[in-house]
Amino acid sequence: YTGTAASIFQAAAVDVPVHLSCGSLDTFANFSSCHALEELRARLTGAPTASVAQYPGVGHGFLNSENWWEQWKAAQTPPRDPYNPAIASQALHEAIAFLLTHMQRLS
User: Distance (Å, rounded) from C-alpha 5 to C-alpha 40?
Assistant: First the structure.
């Protein structure tokens, strides 16, 4: 929905429920930052519901606990925050609850 993808992605044409998740420390502007996702949510005018869940104190890829990702984050200057299992668990539970709620309505 940003960069080249923005020219082919028609947000207003989305007609299904949408749940977006972001970390408050995500700095990927125009991609996955909370600000970018809020802007996207506003363009999802055809979706019956669209929400953005913001998780404090975590950055990009906060649901990824893979070792290679942790190594990459640690190598950044300044280092990125390590995986936070409590926030990841909360985000996953909320995403599953959203899916269960809206899948039942669609079936």
Answer: 13
pTM for this one? 0.81
Span 62-72, pLDDT tens digits: 888 888 888 88
Nearest to 73 by CA among 26, 3, 14: 26
Angle (nearest 5°) at CA 18 between 36 and 47: 100
Residue with tokens 């995500």, as numbered in its chain: 26
Q: Classify residue 61 as left (phi > 0), alpha (psi -120 to 50) or beta.
A: left
